[in-house]
Write a structure and sequence with these properties.
This protein is 43% helix and 13% strand. The protein is of the alpha/beta class. It folds into 2 domains: 5-216, Rossmann fold, CATH 3.40.50; 245-456, NAD(P)-binding Rossmann-like Domain (Rossmann fold), CATH 3.40.50.720. The protein is globular. The chain binds nicotinamide-adenine-dinucleotide and uridine-5'-diphosphate-xylopyranose.
């Protein structure tokens, strides 16, 4: 078996993951391929204008690109020249036909599998890096091995990195999960992938953090882990509404709950609801799987996680409406942050999109600012009339003459802004709705702001 690795799909997963695989395995050649020519061109750009923003990513790409990490659109050549193929193509929610709005759209995955089958002349280990419904590997194996009995071994190696901390998570993961068939060929393939994660001379992930399971457990664990995390966010947001109604403070409640080591402090931050490309898609997929297996009560249970999340954004707009005297028409609101979380330019499923659209229905004039996500915001909101919407990179300019500032993303720079200057430039009474509870509300009130928070 040769040491070359190819990854099909150069997106948020393929790019950072393979950059770190290449860094930790200098003795292996890693090629990342994609059908999207402009994306590959950006990964190869001379000035390192990479297609995605992740703290620390550009430094690693500078270190390994052209040495043992390559980006290419020549998918077939890359498949021919390697024995291990990671597949990290997108698996969005299906928007048509059976399972519409819930199931995973597997067309990109299947197209990839069929192409691998067409091109590959020698045995290959095909590794699912994308998040997939449980038992997808069976379908993939049926396609791949339909004529070449046993030439392909399909493994599941779901990725657990979070955007914004991708490089940190990849360099020092809590665990790596590799699921494989419990056969001699399957176990040998799992070992080959374990060796990649161990890194050259065992310098990367310690053996005890590499967990191996059967394929179905690995596929399901990824959906289950995301569903549990999403469920915690919805649970804390459900409690936030009750705090607002009763005078309890969600941060105090979360701090004390989180001090119980059985609960733990993470993922207890109330806010505008979860966004990102994974949580909603993966919970919906879990709902669909439960329904498909006749587990209707379980399906209903998980769908409440999404329902609560949608409700949270509606609640934000309702509270804003009430605080601004039940009329928003022609008022100006500055939206601080459009990314679904800090430290990323990704705007997929961002709560800010939902809130902006609800505000647009009220004929608000909106000025959106974000340090990294403004280009994506412009694309996402291209259907909204330009006189109702401005994109402004300078937050001070965005807030000028505004009636309210609505903080949607907890960018580290927002608490350090000159809020006295912002207050002076706004229409009075000036409101700040800090949906991330990331600003100093006491200091803002001293300046004259009216302040709203989530769960307080
Ligand atoms: P993405 O859309 O950023 O990237 C996917 C890439 O695959 C695109 O560039 C697309 O052009 C390419 N592609 C599609 N079909 C192809 C084909 N036939 N041949 C070659 N390239 C093809 O998506 P992403 O965020 O990187 O997610 C990819 C997968 O990883 C999804 O299943 C997702 O659920 C999973 N995942 C994502 C994250 C995350 O943080 N984004 C975390 C864990 C898991
Ligand atoms: C998630 C999983 O964490 C990761 O393991 C998986 O591989 C991909 O999906 P990601 O979506 O990138 O990662 O970010 P994450 O940090 O999980 O945040 C998701 C959303 O939940 C964000 O919108 C975030 O703001 C929100 N969130 C998170 C909260 O509102 N409160 C919290 O306490 C934590």
């Amino acid at each position: 078996m040769n040491k070359n690795i190819v990854c099909i799909g150069a997106g948020y997963i393929g790019g950072p993951t393979m950059a770190v695989v290449a860094k930790m395995n200098p003795d292996r050649k890693v090629v990342v391929v994609d059908i999207n020519k402009s994306r590959i061109a950006a990964w190869n750009s001379k000035n390192f204008a990479l297609p995605i923003y992740e703290p620390g990513l550009v430094d690693i790409v500078k270190e390994v690109r052209g040495k043992n990490l390559f980006f290419s659109t020549d998918i077939d050549k890359a498949i021919r020249e390697c024995d291990i193929i990671f597949v990290g193509v997108n698996t969005p929610t299906k928007m048509f036909g059976r399972g519409k709005g819930r199931a995973s759209d597997l067309q990109y995955w299947e197209a990839t599998a069929r192409n691998i089958k067409k091109i590959a002349k020698t045995p290959k280990i095909v590794v699912e890096k994308s998040t997939l419904p449980v038992r997808t590997a069976a379908a993939m194996e049926a396609i791949l091995n339909s004529e070449d009995d046993g030439k392909f071994t399909v493994l599941s190696n779901p990725e657990f990195l979070a955007e914004g901390t991708a490089i940190k998570d990849l360099l020092n993961p809590d665990r790596v999960l590799i699921g494989g068939p419990q056969t001699p060929a399957g176990l040998a393939a799992v070992r080959a992938v374990v060796d990649i994660y161990r890194g050259q001379q065992g310098a990367w992930v310690p053996e005890k953090k590499i967990l191996t399971t059967n394929v179905w457990s690995a596929e399901l664990t990824k959906l289950a882990a995301n569903a549990m995390l999403a469920q915690r966010v919805s649970s804390i947001n459900a409690l936030a509404g009750l705090c607002e109604a009763t005078g309890a403070d969600i941060e105090e409640v979360a701090r004390v709950m989180g001090a119980d080591h059985r609960i733990g402090p993470k993922f207890l931050k109330a806010g505008p609801g979860f966004g990102g490309s994974c949580f909603k898609k993966d919970v919906l997929n879990l709902v669909y799987l439960c329904e498909s297996f006749g587990l209707h009560t379980a399906a209903e249970y998980w769908s409440q996680v999404i329902k609560m999340n949608d409700h949270q954004q509606e609640r934000i707009v309702s509270r804003l409406f009430k605080a601004m005297f039940n009329t928003l028409a022609n008022k100006k609101i500055a939206v601080f942050g459009f990314a679904f979380k800090a430290n990323t330019g990704d705007t997929r499923e961002t709560p800010a999109d939902t809130v902006v659209r609800l505000l647009n229905e009220e004929h608000v004039r909106l000025a959106i600012t974000d340090p990294k996500a403004l280009d994506n915001a412009k694309k996402d909101l291209a259907d909204i009339a330009s006189d109702a919407l401005a994109f402004v990179s300078d937050p001070y300019k965005a807030a000028k003459d505004a009636d309210a500032v609505l903080v949607m993303t907890d960018w580290a720079e927002y608490p350090t802004l000159d809020w006295a200057k912002i207050y002076k430039s706004m229409r009075k009474p000036a409101l700040v709705f800090d949906t991330r509870n990331c600003l100093d509300a006491v200091a803002l009130r001293k300046l004259g702001f009216k302040v709203l928070n989530v769960g307080k």
